[in-house]
Amino acid sequence: MKIGIPKEIKNNENRVGMTPAGVFELIKHKHTVYVQSTAGEGSGFFDADYEAVGATILPTIEDVYDAAEMIVKVKEPIAEEYPLVKPNQLLFTYFHFASSEELTLAMLKSESVCIAYETVEDPDGSLPLLTPMSEVAGRMAIQQGAKYLEKPIKGKGILLGGVPGVSPGKVLILGAGVVGIQAAKMAAGLGAHVTILDVNMKRLRYVNDIMPPHVITGFSNEYNIRKHIQTHDLIVGGVLIKGAKAPKLITRDMLKDMHPGAVIVDVAVDQGGCIETTHATTHEDPTFIIDDVVHYCVANMPGAVPYTSTVALTNVTLPYILKLANKGWEQACEEDPGLAKGLNIVHGKCVYEEINEAFGWEVSC
Ligand SMILES: NC(=O)c1ccc[n+]([C@@H]2O[C@H](COP(=O)([O-])OP(=O)(O)OC[C@H]3O[C@@H](n4cnc5c(N)ncnc54)[C@H](O)[C@@H]3O)[C@@H](O)[C@H]2O)c1
User: Fold this and answer.
1) Is 33 helix (H, G, I), strand (E, B) or coil?
2) Are 175 and 315 members of one domain?
3) pTM of the predicted model, to two decimals?
4) What is the CA radius of gyration of the chain?
5) Where is the Alanine dehydrogenase/pyridine nucleotide transhydrogenase NAD(H)-binding domain (predicted)?
6) How far is the CA of 225 from the centre of ligand 1 (A)?
7) Does 220 belong to an annotated binding site?
8) Residue 147 and residue 55 share a domain
9) Structural domain range at position 220
């Protein structure tokens, strides 16, 4: 198969869809790989590294989309890329369709086949291609939150870990999934008080078993959230309902109950965010303030640590890329029901129920 790796053109996105190690495996299996010139540079991989393992370097993004039967990327195509996508072309990347009707309509119109990393499943229902990025974002959420609690950037002026004689900061985490647990681990490591809320008792039991005693678990409901936001300094939004828009757990009216200078890091922004006041921001301009509460809502947090993120992502995507390239998407999905769960759009049809629900589309569009 002819596989194309375009350069990511989303703001400050320095990750790349495949490392030279991945290209090496594909070439070994007799596939042809086209890499856009400088696509890997942001992650520390140079054209010469790709050429050395047998890739063909193409000068423009148009050349790559033109030449490839399968495009392997990191982020969803942005508006400039919509016209480049061809009928029958296979796109394997993060899409997060439920948060963008514009993107969904563009991909429907393209007649391509879109397999979304974020809805590919393991047999136990977990999301293997979301996990490494959630691990990165969860850990980063505390690093960023701690920074924005500093006074010069309009935070409350709190050191999360405290010092002898001064209490540590308080971190509230919504969702005890991958993001939530990694955030809890980092916050607990800094010495902060951590409260983590979820609706899934199994997750809460697990957190309770593995975390130190200064990580407290609680059930996620409106009453508890309203109570906790009044006392916590940093709030991390890490909820997910697979493929659907995130539920709004903190509404606009609740911000007035929070401390001035408190910080929200809404990691779930890529699914619309779990805070009503969330809107997606970029690494160039990551925060905004509403009712004295600092909001950090960068939709591609792992893009800030591209080396770690690219390697972590391609470690898990490569086995699926090999299956798709070796067998074609139809046979690969037939043989692997977990990969088939990644099918979101097929030749102008939206085949993922939650996406149809998100836009109020009753029948497959
Ligand atoms: N901004 C970024 O750069 C970035 C990077 C990676 C992941 N994400 C996003 O972070 C979010 C979380 O990802 P994840 O991998 O941790 O998902 P996950 O499935 O591992 O965890 C989500 C958790 O949310 C819980 N949940 C659902 N409804 C809830 C509610 N009402 N209250 C509290 N908890 C609730 C679930 O029970 C689950 O434990 C996703 O939207 C994901 O796309 C964003």
Assistant:
1) strand
2) no
3) 0.85
4) 21
5) 149-297
6) 16
7) yes
8) no
9) 131-304
